Amino acid sequence: MNDVEEAITRVHRDEWARVVAALTRRFGDLDIAEEAAAEAFATAVERWPAGGVPPNPGAWLTTTANRKAIDRIRRENKRDDKHKEAQLLYDDPPEPVGAIDDDRLRLIFTCCHPALAMQTRLALTLRMVGGLTVPEIARAFLMTETALERRITRAKAKIKAAGIPYRVPSAEDLPARVSGVLAVLYLMFNEGYLATGPDTDPLRHDLTAEAIRLTRLIRALLPDDGEVAGLLALMLLIEARRTARVSATGELIPLTEQDRGAWDAELVAEGHRLVRERLAAAAAGVAPGRYQILAAINAVHTDARDIRDTDWSQIVALYDQLVRLDPSPIVALNRAIAIAELDGPQVALTTVDRLAEALAGYHAYHATRADLLRRLGQSQQARAAYDRAIELAGNTGETAYLTRRRDQLH
Question: What sequence ranges are listed for the domain RNA polymerase sigma factor 70 region 4 type (predicted)?
Fold first, then answer.
Protein backbone atom coordinates (compact mmCIF):
# COMPACT_ATOMS: atom_id res chain seq x y z
CA MET A 1 0.00 0.00 0.00
CA ASN A 2 1.46 3.41 -1.01
CA ASP A 3 1.41 6.60 1.11
CA VAL A 4 -1.76 8.02 -0.47
CA GLU A 5 -3.66 4.75 -0.07
CA GLU A 6 -2.55 4.59 3.56
CA ALA A 7 -3.68 8.20 4.07
CA ILE A 8 -7.10 7.45 2.54
CA THR A 9 -7.52 4.37 4.76
CA ARG A 10 -6.52 6.37 7.84
CA VAL A 11 -8.78 9.32 6.95
CA HIS A 12 -11.72 6.98 6.30
CA ARG A 13 -11.18 5.42 9.73
CA ASP A 14 -10.83 8.80 11.48
CA GLU A 15 -13.34 10.93 9.58
CA TRP A 16 -16.18 8.67 8.38
CA ALA A 17 -18.44 9.15 11.41
CA ARG A 18 -17.69 12.88 11.62
CA VAL A 19 -18.62 13.45 7.96
CA VAL A 20 -21.82 11.36 8.20
CA ALA A 21 -22.81 13.12 11.44
CA ALA A 22 -22.22 16.60 9.99
CA LEU A 23 -24.32 15.76 6.90
CA THR A 24 -27.10 14.25 9.02
CA ARG A 25 -27.23 17.44 11.07
CA ARG A 26 -27.49 19.58 7.94
CA PHE A 27 -29.85 17.50 5.78
CA GLY A 28 -31.71 15.44 8.39
CA ASP A 29 -31.56 12.28 6.25
CA LEU A 30 -29.36 9.27 7.02
CA ASP A 31 -29.55 7.88 3.49
CA ILE A 32 -28.40 11.14 1.92
CA ALA A 33 -25.68 11.52 4.58
CA GLU A 34 -24.26 8.04 4.08
CA GLU A 35 -24.41 8.04 0.29
CA ALA A 36 -22.88 11.52 0.00
CA ALA A 37 -20.08 10.56 2.43
CA ALA A 38 -19.39 7.39 0.42
CA GLU A 39 -19.29 9.42 -2.83
CA ALA A 40 -16.89 11.93 -1.25
CA PHE A 41 -14.52 9.13 -0.24
CA ALA A 42 -14.79 7.61 -3.75
CA THR A 43 -13.83 11.04 -5.18
CA ALA A 44 -10.84 11.16 -2.81
CA VAL A 45 -9.72 7.74 -4.08
CA GLU A 46 -9.85 9.11 -7.66
CA ARG A 47 -8.24 12.52 -7.09
CA TRP A 48 -5.77 12.28 -4.21
CA PRO A 49 -3.26 9.92 -5.91
CA ALA A 50 -2.69 12.59 -8.62
CA GLY A 51 -3.30 15.81 -6.70
CA GLY A 52 -2.02 14.80 -3.28
CA VAL A 53 -3.75 14.56 0.10
CA PRO A 54 -5.25 17.97 1.04
CA PRO A 55 -3.90 19.74 4.17
CA ASN A 56 -7.21 19.21 6.01
CA PRO A 57 -8.67 15.94 4.64
CA GLY A 58 -11.71 15.99 6.96
CA ALA A 59 -12.78 19.46 5.83
CA TRP A 60 -12.21 18.52 2.15
CA LEU A 61 -14.39 15.42 2.56
CA THR A 62 -17.16 17.29 4.40
CA THR A 63 -17.24 20.04 1.72
CA THR A 64 -17.23 17.47 -1.10
CA ALA A 65 -19.93 15.37 0.60
CA ASN A 66 -22.09 18.50 1.11
CA ARG A 67 -21.88 19.23 -2.61
CA LYS A 68 -22.77 15.61 -3.46
CA ALA A 69 -25.77 15.75 -1.12
CA ILE A 70 -27.00 19.02 -2.64
CA ASP A 71 -26.62 17.57 -6.16
CA ARG A 72 -28.67 14.53 -5.15
CA ILE A 73 -31.44 16.64 -3.57
CA ARG A 74 -31.59 18.80 -6.70
CA ARG A 75 -31.87 15.72 -8.92
CA GLU A 76 -34.62 14.27 -6.76
CA ASN A 77 -36.64 17.50 -6.53
CA LYS A 78 -36.37 18.31 -10.26
CA ARG A 79 -38.24 21.55 -9.78
CA ASP A 80 -37.14 25.14 -10.14
CA ASP A 81 -37.41 26.17 -6.51
CA LYS A 82 -34.81 28.94 -6.31
CA HIS A 83 -35.53 29.73 -2.68
CA LYS A 84 -35.03 26.11 -1.60
CA GLU A 85 -31.83 25.88 -3.66
CA ALA A 86 -30.47 29.05 -2.05
CA GLN A 87 -31.22 27.62 1.39
CA LEU A 88 -29.29 24.45 0.56
CA LEU A 89 -26.30 26.40 -0.68
CA TYR A 90 -26.06 29.20 1.84
CA ASP A 91 -27.91 28.35 5.05
CA ASP A 92 -25.79 27.48 8.05
CA PRO A 93 -26.58 24.11 9.65
CA PRO A 94 -29.02 24.42 12.59
CA GLU A 95 -27.54 24.94 16.02
CA PRO A 96 -26.89 21.72 17.94
CA VAL A 97 -29.64 20.71 20.34
CA GLY A 98 -28.86 18.91 23.59
CA ALA A 99 -26.67 18.95 26.64
CA ILE A 100 -23.47 17.99 24.79
CA ASP A 101 -22.30 19.44 21.48
CA ASP A 102 -21.03 16.28 19.82
CA ASP A 103 -22.27 15.32 16.36
CA ARG A 104 -21.48 11.63 16.72
CA LEU A 105 -23.18 11.30 20.09
CA ARG A 106 -26.35 12.86 18.63
CA LEU A 107 -26.11 10.47 15.70
CA ILE A 108 -25.90 7.51 18.12
CA PHE A 109 -29.04 8.63 19.93
CA THR A 110 -30.82 9.07 16.58
CA CYS A 111 -29.90 5.54 15.52
CA CYS A 112 -30.76 4.14 18.98
CA HIS A 113 -34.35 5.40 19.03
CA PRO A 114 -36.79 3.14 20.95
CA ALA A 115 -38.99 2.92 17.83
CA LEU A 116 -36.37 0.55 16.38
CA ALA A 117 -35.79 -3.02 17.54
CA MET A 118 -32.68 -3.36 19.72
CA GLN A 119 -30.65 -5.42 17.23
CA THR A 120 -31.60 -2.99 14.45
CA ARG A 121 -30.40 -0.05 16.60
CA LEU A 122 -27.10 -1.81 17.14
CA ALA A 123 -26.57 -2.65 13.46
CA LEU A 124 -27.50 0.82 12.21
CA THR A 125 -25.30 2.64 14.73
CA LEU A 126 -22.28 0.43 14.12
CA ARG A 127 -22.64 1.21 10.40
CA MET A 128 -23.31 4.94 10.66
CA VAL A 129 -21.22 5.91 13.68
CA GLY A 130 -18.68 3.13 14.02
CA GLY A 131 -18.00 3.07 10.29
CA LEU A 132 -17.98 -0.74 10.45
CA THR A 133 -18.54 -2.59 7.21
CA VAL A 134 -21.58 -4.78 6.63
CA PRO A 135 -19.43 -7.98 6.77
CA GLU A 136 -17.94 -6.88 10.14
CA ILE A 137 -21.37 -6.23 11.65
CA ALA A 138 -22.80 -9.42 10.15
CA ARG A 139 -20.02 -11.41 11.84
CA ALA A 140 -20.75 -9.71 15.17
CA PHE A 141 -24.43 -10.72 14.89
CA LEU A 142 -23.80 -14.16 13.33
CA MET A 143 -26.18 -13.33 10.45
CA THR A 144 -25.97 -13.05 6.66
CA GLU A 145 -24.84 -9.83 4.99
CA THR A 146 -28.01 -9.67 2.87
CA ALA A 147 -30.28 -9.87 5.92
CA LEU A 148 -28.23 -7.20 7.66
CA GLU A 149 -28.35 -4.86 4.62
CA ARG A 150 -32.16 -5.17 4.58
CA ARG A 151 -32.35 -4.43 8.30
CA ILE A 152 -30.21 -1.28 7.98
CA THR A 153 -32.18 -0.04 4.96
CA ARG A 154 -35.52 -0.51 6.77
CA ALA A 155 -34.17 1.27 9.86
CA LYS A 156 -33.08 4.34 7.88
CA ALA A 157 -36.48 4.46 6.17
CA LYS A 158 -38.26 4.23 9.53
CA ILE A 159 -36.18 7.09 11.00
CA LYS A 160 -37.06 9.25 7.99
CA ALA A 161 -40.77 8.36 8.01
CA ALA A 162 -41.16 8.84 11.77
CA GLY A 163 -39.26 12.15 11.73
CA ILE A 164 -36.95 10.96 14.51
CA PRO A 165 -34.93 14.03 15.55
CA TYR A 166 -31.15 14.27 15.35
CA ARG A 167 -30.35 15.24 18.94
CA VAL A 168 -29.35 14.06 22.38
CA PRO A 169 -32.68 13.43 24.17
CA SER A 170 -33.84 15.61 27.05
CA ALA A 171 -32.73 14.64 30.57
CA GLU A 172 -35.96 12.78 31.41
CA ASP A 173 -35.72 10.67 28.21
CA LEU A 174 -32.07 9.72 28.66
CA PRO A 175 -32.32 6.80 31.12
CA ALA A 176 -34.79 4.92 28.89
CA ARG A 177 -32.59 5.39 25.82
CA VAL A 178 -29.17 4.74 27.29
CA SER A 179 -29.19 0.91 27.38
CA GLY A 180 -29.21 0.68 23.58
CA VAL A 181 -26.47 3.28 23.32
CA LEU A 182 -24.26 1.39 25.80
CA ALA A 183 -24.80 -1.86 23.89
CA VAL A 184 -23.67 -0.14 20.68
CA LEU A 185 -20.57 1.33 22.31
CA TYR A 186 -19.68 -2.05 23.80
CA LEU A 187 -19.92 -3.72 20.36
CA MET A 188 -17.91 -0.90 18.76
CA PHE A 189 -15.25 -1.33 21.44
CA ASN A 190 -15.23 -5.12 20.94
CA GLU A 191 -14.62 -4.75 17.20
CA GLY A 192 -11.62 -2.58 18.03
CA TYR A 193 -10.43 -4.93 20.79
CA LEU A 194 -10.52 -7.94 18.45
CA ALA A 195 -11.05 -6.82 14.85
CA THR A 196 -12.94 -9.43 12.83
CA GLY A 197 -11.86 -8.30 9.36
CA PRO A 198 -9.22 -10.50 7.70
CA ASP A 199 -7.53 -7.46 6.10
CA THR A 200 -7.44 -5.17 9.17
CA ASP A 201 -4.98 -4.79 12.02
CA PRO A 202 -5.70 -7.29 14.81
CA LEU A 203 -6.46 -4.37 17.16
CA ARG A 204 -8.22 -1.19 15.98
CA HIS A 205 -7.27 1.58 18.38
CA ASP A 206 -9.43 4.07 16.46
CA LEU A 207 -12.58 2.17 17.46
CA THR A 208 -11.61 1.53 21.10
CA ALA A 209 -10.56 5.17 21.57
CA GLU A 210 -13.79 6.49 20.03
CA ALA A 211 -15.94 4.12 22.11
CA ILE A 212 -14.17 5.32 25.28
CA ARG A 213 -14.53 8.99 24.25
CA LEU A 214 -18.27 8.63 23.65
CA THR A 215 -18.78 6.65 26.87
CA ARG A 216 -17.05 9.45 28.79
CA LEU A 217 -19.52 11.92 27.23
CA ILE A 218 -22.46 9.76 28.32
CA ARG A 219 -21.00 9.54 31.82
CA ALA A 220 -20.99 13.36 31.89
CA LEU A 221 -24.70 13.27 30.95
CA LEU A 222 -25.55 10.52 33.48
CA PRO A 223 -22.96 10.65 36.28
CA ASP A 224 -25.06 8.51 38.65
CA ASP A 225 -25.81 5.69 36.17
CA GLY A 226 -24.01 2.59 37.41
CA GLU A 227 -23.97 0.81 34.06
CA VAL A 228 -22.40 3.81 32.30
CA ALA A 229 -19.66 3.85 34.95
CA GLY A 230 -19.34 0.07 34.67
CA LEU A 231 -18.94 0.14 30.89
CA LEU A 232 -16.35 2.91 31.09
CA ALA A 233 -14.41 0.96 33.74
CA LEU A 234 -14.59 -2.21 31.62
CA MET A 235 -13.28 -0.40 28.52
CA LEU A 236 -10.44 1.28 30.43
CA LEU A 237 -9.26 -1.96 32.06
CA ILE A 238 -9.23 -3.75 28.69
CA GLU A 239 -7.65 -0.81 26.83
CA ALA A 240 -4.92 -0.67 29.51
CA ARG A 241 -3.65 -4.03 28.22
CA ARG A 242 -3.61 -3.05 24.52
CA THR A 243 0.16 -2.60 24.03
CA ALA A 244 0.82 -5.99 25.66
CA ARG A 245 -1.70 -7.88 23.50
CA VAL A 246 0.20 -8.17 20.18
CA SER A 247 3.72 -9.52 19.70
CA ALA A 248 6.39 -7.97 17.43
CA THR A 249 5.41 -10.54 14.78
CA GLY A 250 1.71 -9.55 14.92
CA GLU A 251 0.54 -12.53 16.96
CA LEU A 252 -2.14 -12.03 19.60
CA ILE A 253 -0.83 -12.62 23.15
CA PRO A 254 -3.41 -14.07 25.57
CA LEU A 255 -3.87 -12.60 29.04
CA THR A 256 -1.99 -15.51 30.64
CA GLU A 257 1.19 -14.68 28.68
CA GLN A 258 1.14 -10.86 28.69
CA ASP A 259 3.90 -8.69 30.15
CA ARG A 260 1.93 -7.02 32.94
CA GLY A 261 4.59 -4.36 33.30
CA ALA A 262 3.56 -3.09 29.86
CA TRP A 263 -0.02 -2.38 30.95
CA ASP A 264 -1.07 1.27 31.21
CA ALA A 265 -1.01 1.90 34.97
CA GLU A 266 -3.02 5.13 34.66
CA LEU A 267 -5.92 3.45 32.86
CA VAL A 268 -5.83 0.52 35.31
CA ALA A 269 -6.00 2.93 38.27
CA GLU A 270 -8.94 4.85 36.76
CA GLY A 271 -10.78 1.61 35.99
CA HIS A 272 -10.21 0.28 39.52
CA ARG A 273 -11.45 3.55 41.01
CA LEU A 274 -14.72 3.31 39.05
CA VAL A 275 -15.16 -0.34 40.08
CA ARG A 276 -14.65 0.57 43.76
CA GLU A 277 -17.34 3.28 43.42
CA ARG A 278 -19.76 0.70 42.06
CA LEU A 279 -18.84 -1.84 44.78
CA ALA A 280 -19.70 0.81 47.37
CA ALA A 281 -23.08 1.31 45.67
CA ALA A 282 -23.65 -2.48 45.64
CA ALA A 283 -22.84 -2.60 49.37
CA ALA A 284 -25.53 0.04 49.86
CA GLY A 285 -28.06 -2.24 48.18
CA VAL A 286 -27.86 -1.17 44.52
CA ALA A 287 -27.65 -4.37 42.45
CA PRO A 288 -24.89 -4.23 39.81
CA GLY A 289 -25.72 -4.63 36.14
CA ARG A 290 -23.94 -6.60 33.41
CA TYR A 291 -21.22 -4.05 32.61
CA GLN A 292 -20.42 -3.48 36.28
CA ILE A 293 -19.90 -7.22 36.82
CA LEU A 294 -17.73 -7.50 33.69
CA ALA A 295 -15.70 -4.53 34.94
CA ALA A 296 -15.28 -6.21 38.34
CA ILE A 297 -14.01 -9.39 36.61
CA ASN A 298 -11.46 -7.33 34.71
CA ALA A 299 -10.49 -5.52 37.90
CA VAL A 300 -9.63 -8.88 39.51
CA HIS A 301 -7.50 -9.80 36.47
CA THR A 302 -5.65 -6.47 36.43
CA ASP A 303 -5.14 -6.52 40.20
CA ALA A 304 -2.88 -9.59 39.94
CA ARG A 305 0.82 -8.77 39.49
CA ASP A 306 1.34 -12.27 38.08
CA ILE A 307 -1.12 -14.70 36.43
CA ARG A 308 -0.45 -17.09 39.37
CA ASP A 309 -1.79 -14.44 41.78
CA THR A 310 -5.20 -14.29 40.06
CA ASP A 311 -8.13 -14.87 42.44
CA TRP A 312 -10.00 -17.36 40.28
CA SER A 313 -12.58 -18.16 42.94
CA GLN A 314 -13.63 -14.48 42.95
CA ILE A 315 -13.81 -14.46 39.15
CA VAL A 316 -16.02 -17.58 39.13
CA ALA A 317 -18.27 -16.01 41.81
CA LEU A 318 -18.64 -12.89 39.63
CA TYR A 319 -19.47 -15.05 36.59
CA ASP A 320 -22.10 -16.82 38.70
CA GLN A 321 -23.69 -13.39 39.25
CA LEU A 322 -23.41 -12.56 35.56
CA VAL A 323 -25.02 -15.86 34.47
CA ARG A 324 -28.10 -14.94 36.52
CA LEU A 325 -28.36 -11.61 34.66
CA ASP A 326 -27.28 -12.86 31.24
CA PRO A 327 -27.64 -16.66 30.84
CA SER A 328 -26.16 -16.60 27.33
CA PRO A 329 -23.91 -19.35 25.92
CA ILE A 330 -21.00 -16.88 25.56
CA VAL A 331 -21.14 -15.97 29.26
CA ALA A 332 -21.26 -19.70 30.09
CA LEU A 333 -18.17 -20.24 27.88
CA ASN A 334 -16.22 -17.48 29.64
CA ARG A 335 -17.25 -18.87 33.03
CA ALA A 336 -15.94 -22.29 31.94
CA ILE A 337 -12.52 -20.75 31.15
CA ALA A 338 -12.34 -19.52 34.76
CA ILE A 339 -13.59 -22.90 36.05
CA ALA A 340 -10.66 -24.57 34.24
CA GLU A 341 -8.25 -22.56 36.42
CA LEU A 342 -10.15 -23.35 39.61
CA ASP A 343 -11.33 -26.96 39.14
CA GLY A 344 -9.22 -28.18 36.21
CA PRO A 345 -9.67 -28.59 32.44
CA GLN A 346 -11.80 -31.75 32.61
CA VAL A 347 -14.55 -30.09 34.65
CA ALA A 348 -14.47 -27.09 32.30
CA LEU A 349 -14.58 -29.29 29.18
CA THR A 350 -17.79 -30.95 30.39
CA THR A 351 -19.42 -27.51 30.57
CA VAL A 352 -17.97 -26.39 27.23
CA ASP A 353 -19.18 -29.51 25.41
CA ARG A 354 -22.75 -28.72 26.50
CA LEU A 355 -22.50 -25.48 24.47
CA ALA A 356 -21.62 -27.26 21.21
CA GLU A 357 -24.94 -26.65 19.45
CA ALA A 358 -25.36 -23.03 20.53
CA LEU A 359 -21.79 -21.97 19.67
CA ALA A 360 -20.96 -24.23 16.71
CA GLY A 361 -20.11 -21.22 14.49
CA TYR A 362 -18.24 -19.24 17.15
CA HIS A 363 -14.45 -19.39 16.85
CA ALA A 364 -13.81 -18.78 20.57
CA TYR A 365 -15.80 -21.90 21.47
CA HIS A 366 -13.50 -24.08 19.36
CA ALA A 367 -10.37 -22.22 20.56
CA THR A 368 -11.36 -22.75 24.21
CA ARG A 369 -12.13 -26.41 23.58
CA ALA A 370 -8.81 -26.86 21.76
CA ASP A 371 -6.88 -25.42 24.71
CA LEU A 372 -8.69 -27.62 27.25
CA LEU A 373 -8.07 -30.74 25.12
CA ARG A 374 -4.40 -29.75 24.76
CA ARG A 375 -4.07 -29.45 28.54
CA LEU A 376 -5.67 -32.89 28.91
CA GLY A 377 -3.12 -34.39 26.49
CA GLN A 378 -5.76 -35.22 23.83
CA SER A 379 -3.67 -33.92 20.94
CA GLN A 380 -5.64 -35.36 18.03
CA GLN A 381 -8.94 -33.89 19.20
CA ALA A 382 -7.19 -30.64 20.12
CA ARG A 383 -5.78 -30.37 16.59
CA ALA A 384 -9.24 -30.76 15.05
CA ALA A 385 -10.63 -28.09 17.39
CA TYR A 386 -7.74 -25.72 16.54
CA ASP A 387 -8.39 -26.30 12.82
CA ARG A 388 -12.04 -25.31 13.23
CA ALA A 389 -11.14 -22.24 15.34
CA ILE A 390 -8.59 -21.09 12.73
CA GLU A 391 -11.18 -21.57 9.97
CA LEU A 392 -13.72 -19.38 11.81
CA ALA A 393 -11.40 -16.71 13.28
CA GLY A 394 -11.28 -13.48 11.26
CA ASN A 395 -8.63 -11.75 13.37
CA THR A 396 -5.15 -12.01 11.84
CA GLY A 397 -3.32 -11.92 15.19
CA GLU A 398 -5.58 -14.55 16.70
CA THR A 399 -5.21 -16.82 13.66
CA ALA A 400 -1.42 -16.60 13.99
CA TYR A 401 -1.59 -17.49 17.70
CA LEU A 402 -3.96 -20.43 17.17
CA THR A 403 -1.85 -21.74 14.29
CA ARG A 404 1.30 -21.73 16.45
CA ARG A 405 -0.49 -23.52 19.31
CA ARG A 406 -1.81 -26.16 16.93
CA ASP A 407 1.62 -26.68 15.37
CA GLN A 408 3.18 -27.19 18.82
CA LEU A 409 0.99 -30.25 19.45
CA HIS A 410 2.78 -33.58 19.51
Answer: 108-159
